[in-house]
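Email to the structure team, subject: SUF system FeS cluster assembly SufBD core domain-containing protein model.

Hi all, the expression group asked for a predicted structure before they design truncation constructs. Nothing fancy, just the tokens so they can compare against earlier work. One-line instruction: predict SUF system FeS cluster assembly SufBD core domain-containing protein, return tokens.
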Amino acid sequence: MSEAKIPAGSTAAGTIAVAAESTVATRMSAPPSFDVADFPVPHGREEEWRFTPLERLKGLHDGSATADGSMKVEVDAPEGVTVESVGRDDARLGKAGTPVDRVAAQAYSAFEKATVISVPKEAVLAEPLRIRLQGEGGTTYGHTVFDIGAFAEVAIVIDHTGDAVRAANVDFLIGDGAKVTFVSVQDWADTAVHCSQHNALIGRDASFKSVVVTFGGDAVRIHPRVNYAGPGGEAELYGLYFTDAGQHQEHRLFVDHEAPNCRSHVTYKGALQGQDAHAVWIGDVLIQKTAEGTDTYELNRNLVLTDGARVDSVPNLEIETGEIVGAGHASATGRFDDEQLFYLMARGIPADEARRLVVRGFFAELVQEIGIDDIEERLIARIETELGAAAA
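Reply from the structure team: attached below.
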């Protein structure tokens, strides 16, 4: 287990050891860019690629993948929401963030039309805004922008199913005082490949809650990133993943505190089972000199259910000002607790049901954070299915 906490008023001196790898200087081999040519083809030795099985990305990383696939797209937009198909010259594209690796730059360079979904200011949507993406084979690229007006309140769900090789960027422009909940579900077929960068630009006193749920796919690499456009912003980043035999699931987070008096909280939890199941979690938080009054914490927990699974969990924290409320991180990976199992079985609960109860309890906090009943029910059912497959 790795854990560190920096109390209010502490200086960065003497604490940088908890972030042996600097968020800015060492983690990326090239600066952010919209031009794919600015990124060298990765070979797996680079810091940001060392955990990723490049040979399983189907050419997304080296330019050999061509856009020869199809994706069925359904958008269920509540009344008042505008959905547009725009060209690359639209000023809203790229405003929330710039691609930070070659795959994200390739996705930005390769899409034909981007989708911009706008929620007017002060709108309070009673129902979630839903996008369903069903892969129908081949390689596709995409770019989606959510433009959320000031003081609006909205829940957004993007649901990925089917088979595809997919690279995409998803941007959030969040107006002052707005409240946004975003749920991204990766429920792909076992052969799918998915790489996506999520960029959130949070306005003054606005809040953004992201919930990333990953079950399916052969290789999935999700990169959520948060920036603050003004003081008082809040970001909550949650993640739930269940990694099966042979799957590679990678979640790489970066929270850039530049504005003062902002808050961020990160909690990701994963369960792994089966031979060569591989989960990667990288959590980077940067507190810049101008970000006085920052309060941040990041947590990653992993539950290894069987032999043969592997977890790489790397929290990083870089602090450039001592005038903070608090900052810290924790990471732990452990095997299934046989004592808990024995405790439940001793009270007459069968072994399979006891195992389910332990895993349900592990994930319960995160499932409740989603706040959308049908998604929560679906995830609980999927966890049951995963556990049933292991017991069979």
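Residues 1-26 have pLDDT under 50 and may be disordered. The first strand starts at residue 2 and ends at 6. Ping us if the truncation boundaries need rechecking.
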